[in-house]
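Pilot study result, target chain (301 residues):
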Amino acid sequence: MKRIPRRMLPLALLALVTAAPGPPEPEAAGRPKGSLILMGGGSRPDPMMRRFVALAGGPGRARIAILPMASSEAQASGAAIERELDSLGARAFVFLVNRTEAQSPAAVRRLDSVTGIWFGGGDQVRLAAALAGTASLGALSDRHREGAVVGGTSAGAASMSASMITGNQTPSGDTTGYYGDEYPAIERDRVEVVPGLGFLPEAIVDQHFIHRERHNRLMSAVLERPWLIGVGIDESAALEVAPDGCWTVLGESQVVIYDARRAVVPALPGPLVGAADLRVHVLPPGARYDPKNGRATIPTR
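Predicted structure:
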C-alpha cells in the first residue's frame, strides 16, 4: 500500500475513523474463540491461504465473508479473492458496503453464519471509515468471539489493531525518506495513528515491513505507545494469533517484533525519542511468540 500524503486525506474521513470505537479488549470481554491471520501483503503463499480456510472450518464447511472496501477497485478485488477462496473449497461471498449500509439489519443478517472474515488490501483508512463503530463490525466481532477466523492482507492486516497506522505522516512530519515513500527519522508526533477495528488490541501492526523498510515508522509509533507491541509483517509472511493468545509466524519471510513494555522510554525535549532495554525479535517461519511474557521461540530446523 503506497503512502498517501496526509494533506490529501479527507478530513471528514479521518474524523469518522477517529470517532469510532473498536470492539472491547479481550480482558473485558473474554478471549475470542477464533484465530487471526494477518498477512503482510505481496504474494500469498498457498499454505497460508489453506491455513486460513482450515481455521474457517475447512473445504466444504468454510463460509467466508470478503470485505474489500480498502481497495480503490473494491468489486474487482473482492471477486478475485472470492475465486481464490472458492478454489480452496470455501464458500466465499463479497460483503461490499458503505458506512450507511453497514448499519442496516439486512447487512448484519448476511453475517449471521460466517465462519471466516477476510479484509482485503488497499487503504486501511478507507476500510475503517466504512466499518468502525457500525452494526456490521459488531456482528463481525461477535462471530470472531464465537469462533470465526479473521484474516486480512496488507491494509486488511493493519486495520485489525485497535491503534492503526494510517500510512500518513502528521503535519510536523510531512517529509519523505530515501525512497520518497518512507519515514526518515525516529521521532514523536510523526506517525499518524487512529483507532482501527480492534481485533488485536495489544499490538500495532505495519505491513510490507522488510521489503519497504518501515523500521522508522513502526519504531516511532511504538516508542510513543510503549504499552503496545509493534508487529512488522513482511510480504509473503503472516502472523497467526491463536485463541490462547500465542503467535506463530507463517509463510516465506519474517515478522519483526518491537516490545517496549519493559523498556525505559524517557521524555526528551524536542522531537527525538530514545529507549533503553527495548526488545527486538526477528521471527522466521515457524517461530512462536507469547505476548504475555514476551518470549520468542525460533525453530532450529
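One observation from the pilot: Residues 10-17+33-284 form a domain with the Rossmann fold fold (CATH 3.40.50.880). A full batch analysis is planned for the follow-on phase.
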